[in-house]
Automatic annotation (TrEMBL):
The keyword Transit peptide does not apply. Pfam families: NDH2_C (PF22366), Pyr_redox_2 (PF07992). The lineage of its organism: Eukaryota, Fungi, Dikarya, Ascomycota, Pezizomycotina. Residues 27-329 form the FAD/NAD(P)-binding domain. It comes from the Eukaryota. This is Pyridine nucleotide-disulfide oxidoreductase-domain-containing protein. Transmembrane segments: none annotated. It comes from Phyllosticta capitalensis. Residues 446-506 form the External alternative NADH-ubiquinone oxidoreductase-like C-terminal domain. Residues 111-136 are annotated as: Disordered. Residues 117-136 have a biased composition (Basic and acidic residues). InterPro entries: FAD/NAD-bd_sf, FAD/NAD-binding_dom, NDH-2, NDH2-like_C. Belongs to the NADH dehydrogenase family.
């Protein structure tokens, strides 16, 4: 399908006295930087396929109705900010002309959902039925000029090319994913409650598998256990003997980023709650239908079959997949080889004599963009010979999960992305001279937390202190409440916590 291409640079003629700043995508790094930049110095332009920022720590709660979806969202367009916004995908970048090509994404059916491949190839879950519509709705391209460019494109969900996972698994990276999970949980219980459903099919439908033993997988398992024990057990008492929650992980233990004692505490809590944790288990396939050894079941497509190397085929009602991140295809396709560099604002370190083309420096294993400690993008000559020559683009920055600081191993977490966005905005507000003379970005480890269900949590501070149980749960809730961006959500979050505690979760399907 041919797409028209127009220029969007003329739209900002009224802001000629302000430096133009383009923040690409609305993750933790980009959204934080966009909100904190001084509007008197910069005209901030946000380009993203979604018109909101997601407070990801609350997604597990929204997926089971502990909180409503709006409490985890912050709109980009707001009366409180002077941010210009275009809903689109970054398509390509021209560093020499300082332009970025944007594909319109207003009608993109994949927005609000986790992606596992290039957006035009991704056909997971509900999107398969929209394949033809997605092709016909590919947006036109338009160009935007920039003075300074911040790349914060994030990462996609990693599936390791496991057969059937992209098509049949449920992910938890965006609000659309949380909505799908919430509807599927209730669908499984409603179907299992029908008198025409056999006991074997009930076991299949109410067998919930979570693949990935990191904080996301553990917290979702805990939230799922809460809604079943606190709400669904009263509404479907006859189905309680059939439900099961299992966490699978290929590693030898879950919550590897936590202290060993905290990880053991979490496993013991799950064991007491009846949640199985199966480590050193390898998922080989996920397909629709019942296991091959189950015959004569009505509507066998109503569930899924999870094939695990250590256990064989298992009938499940839903598989929530949370096994880590893969690099955004945009980084590989659009940020790779460049022949020309801008005439100004580029620092050539070494000799560029004979250099015909440049490559964006990337991490050899993860593919992440390598930046210096000022978060500026680094280019290297495209040559097989070992050379110390490189170029630093002074007006192009990379933050968030798609980038890493040279010589560091900071984790790809919201905490690191948030601190990068905050630090970069602070330095840019002071001016380029302050950025040049500054000490560079350093991550301040504030610790990690995870919810375990039934008002219990674990917390490991950056200094190494450990807290578990009810005290950690209070800190967990208090931390997320104080980190909520808007006053509106700071009010709504505790309100929904109280309403759902007092009256139970809303289990309506819509």
């Amino acid at each position: 399908m041919s797409r028209q291409r127009t220029s969007g640079s003329s739209r900002f003629r009224g802001s000629a006295k302000k430096k133009l700043k383009l923040i690409n995508f609305t993750g933790w790094g980009g959204y934080t930087a966009a909100r904190r930049l001084d509007p008197k110095k910069y005209q901030v332009v946000v380009v993203s396929p979604r018109s909101y920022f997601v407070f990801t720590p609350l997604l597990a709660s929204t997926s089971v109705g502990t909180l409503e979806f709006r409490t985890a969202l912050e709109p980009v367009r707001s009366k409180q900010t002077d941010i210009k916004f275009f809903q689109g995908w970054a398509d390509s970048v021209d560093f020499k002309r300082k332009k970025i090509a944007i594909e319109e994404a207003v009608d993109d059916p994949s927005q609000g959902m986790a992606l596992t491949a290039d957006r035009h190839e991704n056909k997971t879950g509900e999107q398969r039925s929209l394949e033809k519509a997605e092709e016909s709705k590919r947006g036109d391209l338009f160009d935007l000029s920039y003075d300074k460019l911040v790349m914060s494109v994030g990462c996609y969900s990693q599936t390791f090319n496991t057969p059937g996972v992209k098509e049949n698994a449920y992910f938890l990276k965006d609000v659309g994913d949380a909505r799908r999970i919430r509807n599927r949980i209730l669908e499984c219980f409603e179907t299992a409650a029908l008198p025409t459903t056999s006991d074997q099919m009930r076991k299949n439908l109410l067998n919930f598998a979570v693949v990935g033993g990191g904080p996301t997988g553990i917290e979702f398992s805990a939230e799922l256990h809460d809604i079943i024990k606190e709400d669904l057990s009263n509404l479907y008492p006859e189905l309680m003997p059939f439900y099961k929650i299992t966490v699978y992980d290929v590693a030898s233990k879950v919550l590897s980023m936590f202290d060993e004692n905290l990880a053991k505490y979490a496993m013991n809590v799950f064991k007491r709650d009846g949640i199985d944790i199966k480590t050193s288990h390898h998922v080989e396939e996920l397909r629709t239908g019942v296991p091959s050894n189950q015959t004569g079941i009505k509507d066998p497509r109503g569930c899924y079959t999870l094939k695990v190397r250590q256990e064989g085929e298992i009938g499940v009602g839903m598989v929530v997949w949370s096994t880590g991140l893969m690099m955004n295809p945009f980084v590989k396709k659009a940020l790779s080889r460049f022949s020309d560099l801008p005439a100004r604002r580029v620092d050539i370190q070494g000799s560029d004599k004979g250099v015909e083309s440049w490559l964006v420096k990337k991490h050899p294993r993860s593919g992440a963009i390598i930046t210096n400690n000022q978060l500026r993008m680094i280019l290297e000559p495209e040559t097989d010979e070992e050379t110390k020559t490189r170029a630093v683009l002074k007006d192009v920055y990379a933050i968030g999960d798609c980038a890493m600081v040279e010589g560091t191993m900071y984790p790809a977490t919201a905490q690191v992305a948030y601190q990068k966005g905050k630090w970069l905005a602070s330095q840019l507000n002071k001016g380029d001279e302050a950025l040049e003379k500054g000490k560079g970005f350093r991550w301040n480890n504030l610790g990690v937390m995870a919810y375990l269900g039934n008002w219990r949590a674990i917390m490991q501070s950056g200094a190494g202190g450990n807290i578990s149980g009810r005290a950690a749960w209070f800190i967990w809730r208090g931390a997320y409440l104080t980190k909520a961006v808007s006053i509106r959500n700071k009010m709504l979050i505790p309100l929904y916590w109280f309403v759902n505690w007092a009256f139970g979760r809303d289990i309506s399907r819509f």
